[in-house]
């Protein structure tokens, strides 16, 4: 085997690893999601309508991010984070977090502040819903964050207002 073939082989392996780590094609591919509003419609009776608890507007940090993050209490007691008119960059291993503090960068900072992982981002554009665990203290976790787990980068964040009447927890269904 010649030295040239070894260099080409190593180069191919390095390129494959780089592609897997950075997923450059995701920069150019948008995934639009348009999920229905959870828990009923505006036409439902007042006691069955989802109640808006809080909301905030996204600001871009590492990537341009815009839209509204709202938390709703559903008629059955569940809570959901709804992203509307949402748009950000796509990327590898991007998740939706609720964080205990505004965190602009760094995995260590997000770990220190505390966070709840609501799951992988469903799409980088459009309206989408994320279930919030029943034991999540929304008086503590009051920032919606779009977080790239692979690189420890905050794409964007929405500071959520905390109304005084908001329940800290919902117990049972």
Strand content: 35-45%
Sheet with the most strands, sense and barrel status? 9 strands, mixed
Mean pLDDT: 83
Biggest sheet: strand arrangement = 1-7-4-3-2-9-8-5-6
In the CATH classification, which architecture applies?
Sandwich
Instruction: State Rg.
Output: 20 Å
What is the rounded distance between the termini?
A: 67 Å
What is the succession of H and E elements?
HEEEEEHEEEE
Provide the descriptors you would attach to this structure in a database record.
173 residues; alpha+beta; Immunoglobulin-like; elongated; disordered C terminus
What's this model, at a glance?
The chain has 173 residues and is of the alpha+beta class. The chain is built from two helices and nine strands, in the order H-E-E-E-E-E-H-E-E-E-E.
């Amino acid at each position: 085997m010649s030295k040239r073939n070894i260099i080409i082989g190593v180069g191919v392996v390095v390129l494959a690893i780089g592609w897997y780590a950075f997923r450059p094609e995701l920069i150019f591919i948008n995934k639009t999601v348009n999920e229905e509003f959870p828990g009923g419609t505006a036409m439902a009776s007042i006691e069955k309508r989802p109640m808006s608890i809080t909301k905030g507007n996204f600001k871009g940090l590492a990537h341009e991010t815009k839209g509204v993050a709202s938390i709703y209490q559903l008629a059955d007691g569940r809570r959901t984070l709804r992203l509307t008119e949402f748009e950000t960059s796509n990327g590898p291993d991007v998740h939706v977090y609720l964080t205990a503090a505004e965190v602009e960068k760094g995995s260590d900072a997000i770990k220190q502040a505390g966070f709840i992982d609501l799951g992988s981002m469903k799409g980088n554009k459009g309206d989408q819903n994320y279930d919030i665990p029943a034991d999540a203290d929304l008086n503590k976790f009051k920032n919606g964050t779009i977080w790239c787990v692979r690189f420890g980068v905050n794409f964007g964040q929405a500071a959520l207002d905390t109304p005084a009447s908001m329940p800290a927890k919902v117990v049972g269904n």
